[in-house]
Write a structure and sequence with these properties.
- The structure is a homodimer of 438-residue chains.
- With 438 residues, chain A is an alpha+beta fold.
- Chain A has 2 domains: 3-341, Bira Bifunctional Protein, Domain 2 (BirA Bifunctional Protein, domain 2, 2-Layer Sandwich), CATH 3.30.930; 352-437, Rossmann fold (3-Layer(aba) Sandwich), CATH 3.40.50.800.
- Chain A contains 15 helices and 23 strands.
- The longest helix of chain A is centred in the middle third of the chain and has 21 residues, at 167-187.
- The model of chain A has no long low-confidence stretch (mean pLDDT 95).
- Chains A and B meet through β1, β2, α2, β3 and β4 of A and β1, β2, α2, β3 and β4 of B.
């Protein structure tokens, strides 16, 4: 994309309303704009990041055998009356009356609706187990929306739901999703720690939340260094397989044996049993939550499946959420400096920015155009009529992993400067070498 | 995907509430389920089609130089008061009051919001022109939602908005979008005819709607056969370029010179001037609408851009909509038979279904598994314990472009039967030849 013609409105000033780094940087780099309290429009740069995160989340759900579908945002109140949650949910639920006076709501989550779809469709143990998910906008009418997309009212969530014939099956589904989550976060360039959690309003007896480490995180966390050393991805023979019960057991044992707690649940006695050189402390942000809640919804909503002996069984269920739009903010909290965002390669809106330091100089222009033609849509071309300082500042602010800097002196000698945003390292290379390094 | 383990609930009976072919077939083939009046959940098979259509729409918008962003579903009432449409819109607008008694609404369209984002961000003619689009769920609280996803309440729409410094520029944007639309529909396997239209409640003086031909369409259309012969796609030197003003002019002249009208606007005198062998009649479905509406919103919402002489100019705007979820129904209306759906290759949820006629037969099983391993996620593997008749019927109903039929006799001789859904043509080939044909 040519920056001169793109809809990327960067701001020089820091917006007064933004209290945390990710909110400030998302506004300044032109990723989002607020359209109502806690509701954001995703501008082209932010949209690309959101889509990259969504893609990685999707790939890992698919790899775990979950099937994608898409439920609507507007739900009928009756379903929530069946489960008993319509009144429980309180004012965070955005309640709506349509033109025919039917009570509707903007879904904050989808346990009821998925249970309804499931009970209409699945009759036999032969079709079990199932994990179904969707990536859809949700609404929670927070009293005090704040911190930008980290606690917005309209937010994008991936929510998955598992259906199993018995508890043992449900545990396997739970572990598969946990592994999918750890892989997802690793691919996003984040360090994630699973923590045992209360299951809260969804109910249930097994629950973990996923905290990613970020210096500016909202809570203090304590964990065993072992978490930093595990490779969850299936490459070079490492990692764990979703399809192997032993692997899943070994994985789950590791996740639950090593110490990890937020300060609310921090247990000094247990902490002291962790070898001192293994003790890690830091700040963290919650980005996902998984629950096993048994037959809470399948019973209240009369959802049954025929077992091999013909008996009608209430499926054991779980739900698994990742805050996709929240992750955009979380990635920035985990990876930024005073100059701006530092995107991990996997989620960066553009792999590289091409900075033309002397627009109108025939050699610079030709070299930039040639690089841009080769990189296409994976690069942003800063072809604006601006001074070099402004271009450098915007490139650092937007956080592209690579900067290819084309100035008249270098260009005349057939060279560009290649800068890695994360380290600040600059090297003089030929355009061909720069493309090779990307 | 293995059909035995997938969430594809086909129905044997025709649902009584479905009045048109696409609605019946979408329910029977397990593409969607209604969750409230006019609101649907997209099950895995339907979701894949929706995503394929969305992808083609997106690629053609991007190719035309439009930039993708994503606006939220919930909008503040104030914006609509600025343009004066808040009261005009009537009961079709889903109006919402949040917990702080703020008036909100579920967006039926986005002219106001995009104008607001634009006026905050773009200051100078140097950043012009711009075409911005998003693909987002909309809500129109129809009095009588019907015909399945063809006239639903919550529906997915691609809406683009153009901003130009003057009328001449706006005409270029309008033509670019028109070309993008004709390419989009051609890639979807549809025959589309652009028709001059009233611009309706959006206002403006230049407007076309796009009708696709379908034997079961909602309106009668009359058009010149010339439309059937034009290739809009840029391949083999044909088609038209977005970036060439002469091409765009030649394209637009063709689109507006040849006769085309729905029965409401049918002009017998003009029709008689069409050469008899060029006269075509058929049924059609509206799937897109484009408008130039000048400065209606930029003036009422005080959106200006500085011209080269410093004067503040109200941008000339246009809007361009495609009903993405409606297109799923429209494609089926255009392409089905008594047995079920016939997906065009470009939108099919799976390229092929592998039908195992004798599960448990070692040779059949091995051959099916080998084919499935090669085709991966692009194929559906019917591995169910069902009789052959049921599998054939479901394959025809779901409409996969190819069926690879593996029976014990053929398999023993190293052969499969390859059936093309559209023609019914069957040929006996080796598995390797079948893969080659796909």
């Amino acid at each position: 994309m040519r920056l001169s013609r793109s809809f990327i409105p960067t701001l020089k000033e820091t917006p007064a309303e933004a209290q945390i780094a990710s909110h400030r940087l998302m506004l300044r780099a032109g990723l989002v704009r607020q359209t109502s309290a806690g509701i954001y429009a995703w501008l082209p740069l932010g949209f690309r990041v959101l889509k990259n995160i969504e893609r990685i989340v999707r790939e890992e759900q698919d790899a775990a055998g979950a099937q994608e579908l898409l439920m609507p945002t507007i739900q009928p109140a009756e379903l929530w009356r069946e489960s008993g949650r319509y009144d429980d949910y309180g004012e965070e639920m955005l309640r709506i009356t349509d033109r025919r006076e039917r009570e509707m709501l903007y879904g904050p989550t989808n346990e009821e609706m998925i249970t309804d779809l499931f009970r209409q469709s699945v009759r036999s143990y032969r079709e079990m187990p199932q994990i179904l998910y969707h990536i859809q906008w949700k609404f929670r009418d927070e009293m005090r929306p704040r911190f930008g997309v980290m606690r917005g009212r309209e937010f994008l969530m991936k929510d998955a739901y598992s259906f199993d014939m018995d508890y043992a099956g449900a545990v396997v589904s739970y572990r598969k999703m946990m592994l999918a989550y750890m892989r997802t976060f690793q691919r996003l360039g984040l360090k994630a720690i699973p923590m045992e959690a209360e299951s809260g309003p969804i109910g249930g007896d097994l629950s973990h939340e996923f905290i990613i480490l970020a210096p500016t995180g909202e809570s203090q966390v304590y964990f065993d260094a072992a978490f930093e050393q595990i490779d969850y991805l299936p490459r070079g023979g490492g990692g764990f397989s979703h399809d192997n019960a032993d692997d899943l057991h070994r994985f789950f044992t590791q996740m639950t044996t090593h110490y990890a707690a937020t300060d609310e649940k921090h247990d000094l006695a247990a902490w002291e049993k962790v070898a001192p050189e293994h003790r890690r402390e830091g700040r963290g942000i919650e980005v996902g939550h998984i629950f096993h809640f048994g037959t809470k919804y399948s019973k209240s909503m009369n959802c049954t499946v025929a077992a091999p002996d013909g008996a009608k069984v209430h499926p054991e269920m779980g739900s698994y959420g990742i805050g996709v739009s929240r992750l955009v903010g979380a990635v920035i909290e985990a990876s930024h400096d005073d100059s701006g965002i530092i995107w991990p390669d996997s989620v960066a809106p553009f792999k590289a920015v091409i900075i033309n330091l002397r627009r109108g100089d025939a050699v610079c222009d030709a070299m930039c155009e040639a690089l841009y033609a080769r990189l296409g849509n994976t690069a942003l071309y800063d072809d604006r009529d601006e001074r070099a300082g402004g271009k450098f500042a915007d490139a650092d602010l937007m956080g592209h992993p690579w900067q290819i800097i084309v100035g008249p002196r270098g260009a005349a000698a057939g060279k560009v400067e290649l800068k890695r945003r994360a380290t600040g390292e600059r090297t003089e290379v030929t355009p061909e070498e720069a493309l090779g390094r990307l």
